[in-house]
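Protocol check, entry for the methods section draft. Step 1: assemble the input record (protein sequence plus ligand SMILES). Step 2: submit for complex structure prediction. Step 3: store the structure tokens unaltered in the notebook. Ligand used here: S-adenosylmethionine. Step 1 record:
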Amino acid sequence: MRVHLEAIPEIDRYLANFGTYELKDKTPEYERYLSYVGKVLKVDASMRILEVGTGTGWFPLLCKANGLQCKGLEISPQLVECAMQIGKRNGIVPDIELGNVEDNDIGVEQYDVVIASSVFEHVEHWRSGLAKIYKALKPGGAMFFESTNKFSFAKSGEFHKVPLYGWLPDAARYRLRMATHGKDIMKLGIDFNQFRHSLLRREFKKLGFRKVLDVVDLVDADRLSPLKRSVTLASRTLPPVRSLLLTFVMPATTFVCQK
Ligand SMILES: C[S@@+](CC[C@H](N)C(=O)[O-])C[C@H]1O[C@@H](n2cnc3c(N)ncnc32)[C@H](O)[C@@H]1O
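Step 3, stored output:
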């Protein structure tokens, strides 16, 4: 993958759908990330945060609005510009660099927290991207990771017109998306990766993360409906229930990993 300066249809579609928003509407999602990271690390104003794949910029903008230091890395110049414009409307200048996590130097032991949400499905060489994040984290630092969940029965966030889209082999998904959206989807926007919890957990451990928590560990069960609460509590004690829940029910792979 590389930075494309020219317009890309998938980015135009993304901007048409998500390019206009009120920062306050993103607060629950912002708080969810920080509360999940908070399971291993209390985030405060002294810490350095990096978000990889900032999209329309709401996470670094909300960090700055709340006194946290967050730098962003984003591959699309149009999305960096969108974040700047939304920042301008809110009196905030976000610190977002144009670049590709596969190529950019993000340093060694620079960050306390890295956020990678809905981005690694789009990163072609995802293993090397993750290795760079691991290196860029300080010892004890934490990564919030959220991405696709291949065998989920939930509607796909990538392409919901075809049931069980994520189950398709990579080549079939790429062909389907090129036929629907044009060849440029392969420049940026394609889901190169449909992940599985077990694959990711293995990769995180291989990289050296000493703590790897999934959504069953992270979610606050007391805030769930009675049914979801019972299933979550059962998943915490019964590995086969956890495995079924994570594989087929959860719409995403969600992890917090501590170095
Ligand atoms: C689906 S959006 C998610 C944006 C944001 N994290 C959110 O949750 O709203 C994925 C973002 O990652 C960016 N992206 C994809 N591949 C990237 C890469 N290799 N390096 C940096 N950013 C990338 C895309 O341009 C896009 O802005």
